[in-house]
Structures are given as structure tokens and as C-alpha cells.
């Protein structure tokens, strides 16, 4: 655990609104708080350096320390205090389960307090009576990994008998049940049930979290044999049912529905994965909305992380005169430091500047707490030498995973939450400990742009993806110029459409990154702080969604690439993701489009053909992830290719969705032609224009040589013309 850390309930906020801040401090002494406005979050001594300005704020004081606990692992909990006690000292528990790590420790299936059913360390099905007597089904043997099983236990307190049974559902030839009956203490007392858990054990806190899918967990209020329990009708009029949860209902939510007479609806904790194939999936339908009964399971994980639900330690009401920008709440106790980021947007409906920077917070959250394979001694040495942020998510998995990681059962992480400390969102955090450049991405890399705007004397407002998602184009429509960050990769339909509407209504859009507008995501229906990604067909992926699980649970829409959803990035900004390599930047070379009178003004005071052969991001303006123009995907016919990159290393490869086979691609072009960043410009019929650079590392070149360089000059030319209210002429 970190000596001190925390998070806020919002990542972006407007003046007059309140920020609830939640802190966990391991010290017995108070901690100190200081608010700062961040100009540059790059600790590289060869650049502008880490720049932040202390802000006089009411919360700048000391606070008492306390430890706020949390745990990983998803489960369902139902409060049964409103339901009657079981009518007799008897109960039967059943469920369909699909264990993915059956030998990874004890894993709860159903726990009703007096009685539970679980898997032990060896993968055997067991039942536990009052957490005293454990009975193991040895005759069946260990449960099979990634196979469906029907599990069962019945308790007869009068006869002093308990029965455990299991059958394989995935292998019909051996689906006869194996069962064992054991003697147990007799009792004539009613079973008192106060809480029911699914996918964990209680006692007193949830623990022993299940890895895998669970379907149709049911509690019967009488003793049944295995076959009778399987045949029971689950309905509200069947009084022999104490509770029966149908996971095919309310799929987008954190709620589970009890279809039995007591209506003991449950609550899901730590966002397990819904809209997953259940035991009856036929393969005939790929969308859970069309065949919900074939998606009546939930995939639980022992390392799921949702809302940590920490208590609020202090509230910060943003003053009305707060300047837009990037801020942090700096924390310090006698054992360490941390910094909680947030962005201040202008009051709703107010424009304070001609320029609006849209911060890609959805992408930040999706990557939040990315545990990387290349973390190690080199990273720690670089962080120490530069006095950078000292904590890596790779050393602190207790704060949950990124959607770029795998769960402990090797399934992909589909959800990410900002209601927890996200260590890689801190100023000064390093990604790559390379010798070339700063090795920054996301939050920290985007401050290269903010620092350039400040140095160039531009005033600017801030919006984030969240404002665009919630407010649509209204959030940005009044700005003459909108700038993206370096990597606006993940978008909801609403945030994507906000950019499209802005462009179509005459806006001037600068896409200053690469690999943008690539993946479609969904937002939790009850909060924008939890995001979902389904990595469907195509795309560069660290994991792939299983066939049949390409549709989001949160909104029911097809996930995956925006290109597969009929909205290629080329339609929006003229270029789209084409190649990825190592974190090394190359340069652009001017193309014929640079000489076209329609765009020659972009190169005012620039005579060189080579642009951006320098920079703090990999040493060059064109690198790591690059985008190219492609008419087949929607690059406008009037788009001018101003410059294209060259000289990329052999590590660069075309994106998989472009490949037909190892030797052929969709474009029908030589492979080398797909590996380039295109800088493009085009006008829109409504008098607006788009300028795109097609490279993640572009903004890393802006601060080079104290901001005096050809990339800086080029971008200044673009913004100065884009701010000019004279409309652009659309070529006929």
C-alpha cells in the first residue's frame, strides 16, 4: 500500500461545483494538502521541466490521517432481512458454474450464512455447515477448468444429512450427477439468513472470490434431490423457492433480479462482467439483447475493481475565478507524497478563450493503472534520477488493473473505474524508461501541448471527453478552434458525435495525435466514471473478447473498432491508425500538398523539407503510433497530404485490421507504404477546416529548443489562421 494516496469523485469539474476528495494515509500523523496548477508534467531535465504553480485554496491545510480499506474481487450481495426465515431447518442450494481457475485457492459459489457451497484449493466441490464442518465431493474429482457444471447441496437438519452433488454440463456424455451424502449435526431451529452472497464467502467480510461464470444461483426452502432441484420452475408463485436470481435481467446495471416470491434482488460489487455467454449459448445469436437467456451468466473475477467507496475526507468547492487548466491536490505525510489530478472547465455555457483543448480522459481511464511488462530496475532508476513520480501501478496491483491487462484467470479486463487511485494519471509519471526522450504518454504527454500554449501566449479553455459525452456538441460549439490531445483513442458514440457535429457546423478541428477515435466504449448507465471496452474483431489488442461477447453490457451496442461500427477515423479527421512500433519518433517530409495555395500558409516562415526530426517523445514528431490518409475509409477527396513520415524502424508493423494475410493488405499497397504518418488539411462545406498530424509523438516536439522549432512554428500558423473568423473556401 502507498503511504498516502487518494482519488476524487470527479476528474473534471466546473467553477462552483464541489469535488469530494477521499484519502487513505498510513501515517499516525496528519497530512498536508496543497493545490497546484500544472503547466508541464514532464520531469525530463532536457525539456521545460516539471512546472506547477501553487494555488491559494481553502483546502490547503492539514487533515487527520486514517487508513481506508478496500478489496478487489467481484461478487453479488443480497440483503435477506426483509424475507421470512426458512420454514424448516432445511435448504437446497444450486447453481451453474464455469470455473476458470478451479485450483486457485478457496472460491465461494453461494453463501447463505449457515450453509455455503464453494470450491476448495484442490478444485473439489465442497459445502460448509456453519463454517465448522466441511464436506468434500471427492467422487466427482476436481472441477474442470472452463467447463460448465451443475452444482448442488442440500441440508436436512432434522435427519442430520447433507448431500453434495455435481454434474458436467459441457460434456453431455458424462452428465449424470455424482453425489455424496454425509452425516451432520441435527437441529430443529429455523435457518436464519441475513445476507446471501454469490461468488464469494461471507464471514464477516467478503472473501474467497470466485473466478469464472455463475448462472442461476438458487436457494430452495426445502430438501430436494438433484434432479428435482433442476426441474423446479423459477417463478414468483413457487413458495418452495427462497430466492432465484436470473442474471439475464437488468444486464446493463449493477442489480440482479430475484424471480422468486421474496424478491431478494441483489447488488453487484466491483463490476463483474455481464453480457457473457451462459451454459445454453447456441452460437446462433451474437447479441445478448436478442437472446438474453443465452447470456444469463455473470463472469466474476478475484481481481475486479470498481468503486472503492472510500469516505470523503474533505470537499473542495471550485472558486468562481478558477482558471481553466490541469490541477492537482498534492498530499504529503511523514512517509510519502501523492497527487490527485483534476481538470477545471469553464462554467457551463461560458467561453473564456478562442481555443478549447479536449482532454481525452476516457482514454486516461481505460489505461488507468496499466501494469506493464517493461517495469523494472531501469524504470526505477530513471524515476529516481529525474525526481519523477516514484510509484508504478506495476508495483501496486492492489489498486486494480487496466483494461490493457488480464485478470488472474487470463480473461481480458473489460471495465475500468476512476473511483480509485490511478497512479499513471499523476504528474511526472513515466511510461518508457528509454534513452531517447521523456518516455511519456497520456496525461503527462498532453502537458507538452498545454505548456506550448502557455509559452506561446494563447489562452485556452479545457473540456474533457466526459463533458462531450454528457453535453454533446454544446460543450464545444462556440469555440473557433478545438484541439485534441496526443491520444484520443477511446470514445463513446456521444463523444465521437460531438466532434463530428462540431466539424460539420463550421468548427476548426486540430487532431494533434495518433491512434485516435479508434475504439468504441460504453459508459456505465448510472455513472460516467466506469467505462467498458469489448475488444471485438480487428485492432491491435493485448487480449480479444470471446466470440459471442462483442456487445457491450452497458449500452447493448456492438463494441470494438469504430471502423467496424461504420465510423472510421478518416471520416472525421482525414487519417486513421495504420501502424505501431517502438517508442521512437521519426520525422515528416513535405509532400506536394504543402505547395498547394489552399494550405501554403501553414508553412509560413518554414523553408525546410524535413519537419520534426527532434522531440521529447521518442526523439521525433512522427512515431510510436501513426495514422495515414485512406480514401477507402473516408478521407475527404479535398484533403491535402502536407507531409508524410519516413525512416521508421523495423519494429513498425501495419495494424492487423489492414492485413488480409501476411503478404497482402486491404489497400493493395506495398507494406512499407502503410507505415507512415500523414499530416493532412481539408476544408469543410460549412466554412470550417481540419488539420491532422497523424502521430502520437507530434506534441512532444513542441517544447524542443525552448519551443523554438519548426513544429512549433507550423502549429502556430495553423492556430492563428483557425482563430481567424474568415471562413475557409470549400473547393469545388
What does the secondary structure layout of this molecule look like, with pairings?
Blueprint: E1 4-8, E2 12-13, E3 18-25, E4 31-40, E5 51-55, E6 62-63, E7 75-79, E8 90-99, E9 107-111, E10 115-119, E11 125-129, E12 133-136, E13 149-156, E14 161-168, E15 178-183, E16 195-198, E17 212-220, H1 226-231, E18 241-246, E19 255-258, E20 266-269, E21 273-276, E22 297-300, E23 314-317, E24 325-333, E25 336-344, E26 355-359, H2 361-366, H3 377-385, E27 415-417, H4 442-455, E28 460-464, H5 465-471, E29 481-484, E30 490-491, H6 493-504, E31 508-511, E32 519-523, E33 530-533, E34 560-561, H7 569-573, E35 575-590, E36 610-611, E37 622-629, E38 640-646, E39 653-654, E40 659-661, E41 664-665, H8 671-674, E42 678-683, E43 689-692, H9 710-723
Parallel strand pairs: 2-25, 26-28, 26-29, 29-31, 30-32, 31-43
Antiparallel strand pairs: 1-3, 3-23, 4-5, 4-6, 4-24, 7-16, 7-20, 8-13, 8-17, 9-10, 9-16, 10-11, 11-12, 13-14, 14-15, 17-18, 17-22, 18-19, 19-20, 21-22, 24-25, 27-33, 32-33, 32-34, 35-36, 35-37, 35-38, 35-39, 38-42, 40-41, 42-43
What does this structure look like?
With 732 residues, this protein is mainly beta. Among the domains are: 4-70 and 321-340; 75-300, Jelly Rolls, CATH 2.60.120.200. The protein has nine helices and 43 strands. A hairpin with a 3-residue loop joins strand 11 and strand 12 (133-136). Helix 5 packs across helix 6 (493-504). The longest helix has 14 residues, at 442-455. The mean pLDDT is 94.
Can you describe this structure in just a few lines?
This protein has 732 residues and is mainly β. The protein is built from 9 helices and 43 strands.
